[in-house]
Amino acid sequence: MSTSSTGADTAWFTHDRFGLFIHWGIYSVAARHEWIKNYERITDEDYQKYFDHFDPDLYDPAVWAQEAKNAGMKYVVATSKHHDGFCLWDSALTDYKATNTPAKRDVLHPLVDAFRNEGFRLGFYHSVIDWHHPEFPVDGLHPRRDDLAYREANQNRDIAKYRAYLHGQTRELLTQFGPLDIMWFDFSYSKSDWGWSKGKGAKDWDSETLLKMVRDLQPGIIVNDRLEIGGDLKTPEQYQPRGWLQVDGKPVLWEACQTLNGSWGYHRDNLDWKPVEMLVQMLVDTVSKGGNLLLNVGPTARGEFDPKSISRLRGIGEWMRRHGRAIYGCTASEFTPPPDCRYTQNGKRLYLHLFTWPFGHVHLDGLGSRVEYAQLLNDGSEIKIVPIDPHQQAQNTTMGGVGADTLTLRLPVQKPDVTVPVIELFLK
Ligand code: GLC
């Protein structure tokens, strides 16, 4: 077990590399994005219909866990509460919870049990923002931000009371669900300023006390970077970093969180679905830069993964079944890959991921004399190393100008029938 300076156990995390993010709640009933209450400036009264119709009769988290496992995912981060304040577990501190909906039950414990049964590492996404809590001060992000009468009537809200609620619920999550591996808080925005109100951050959440409690209750837990202080994990969202993320010039622990179609919560009419090839390339790209990928599914209000999400998880799983060892336990390599390729490395095994399939040969600079054998990973078939005299002149079919410390591999014309072909290089 390697621990960071905060005591967080990060060894499993940098080995497993691939996790499932789950955004589920009453916004899944509206099916128009998890920020729907903000986007449409919906009142509590009007939003109540989603609470009254949250009835996931097809909900079976064992099926979710199986689909995630089959996709090659090793950990799960599930929403306990999102910005709308709805809680998926039977919190003693509120009535705004799943047990009071037609679901009539805590839907978070069964999820935790199902994923734990499949050997998953576990984490919660917990919103520090709460657009339902009566003491959460109205600000420029609040659904009622443009309702002057509402702002007027609610200007004496006491953030200290909300803070006690936030800390109380966090304690529930960290003491009622067994060992947890990740706490994914979301999000701080203290630099925002709307004139009539300011954003919220570490001071509002009392992040220092909150973080200390989290670490006291679950010492090895990994905490993300959205409390504005002291997290273990950088969390770039919906973009692929250009390289290993750095803070003050030092490479840090990082995890890209990505959606399948642009929305975290189930969004019925958002058809901007990423193809399987892009998703596999995003996973490879992330690990080639020393990061983890947390890929999201927004289950439906009936409690299922929708068919488009399932087909993408299965497509990724098909690739991971043969190529998992080019992801698990791998990290960035010191070598620079050819264009349209990525390297992942695990000790003496170097994996060349080809995002486009070139004709005939691929040239690997810096590997001239370092490779003893090469094979296609999907079928274990040999890939021939072509010995080339770096001084030879190009003449007819004789290749020239390859470079002194370059390894040249001969490729079949046919691209292997896999989403992303990988050549496994055995370093000397
Ligand atoms: C952003 C979104 C939020 C989502 C989170 C996941 O903060 O606003 O809705 O839950 O990202 O990374």
What's the gist of this structure?
The protein has 428 residues and is α/β, with parallel strands linked by helices. It has twelve helices and 16 strands.
Describe the structure.
- With 428 residues, the protein is α/β, with parallel strands linked by helices.
- Helices cover 26% and strands 18% of the residues.
- The chain has helices spanning 11-16, 27-30, 36-39, 44-52, 61-70, 108-117, 148-153, 159-175, 202-205, 207-217, 276-288, 307-323; strands spanning 18-22, 75-81, 121-127, 182-186, 222-223, 246-247, 250-251, 255-258, 292-297, 341-346, 349-354, 361-365, 371-376, 385-386, 406-410, 422-427.
- Helix 5 packs across helix 6 and helix 11 (276-288) packs across helix 12.
- The model has no long low-confidence stretch (mean pLDDT 97).
The geometry reads as elongated
Strand order of the largest sheet: 5-4-3-2-1-9-8
List cofactors, ions and other ligands. alpha-D-glucopyranose
Uncertain segments: none
In percent terms, what proportion of residues is strand? 15-25%
Number of helices: 12
Radius of gyration: 24 Å
Helix content, binned percent: 25-40%
What is the overall pLDDT average? 97
Write down the secondary-structure element order.
HEHHHHEHEHHEHHEEEEHEHEEEEEEE
Secondary structure class reads alpha/beta
Main beta-sheet annotation: 7 strands, parallel
Distance from N terminus to C terminus (CA atoms, Å) equals 28 Å
Give me the count of strands: 16
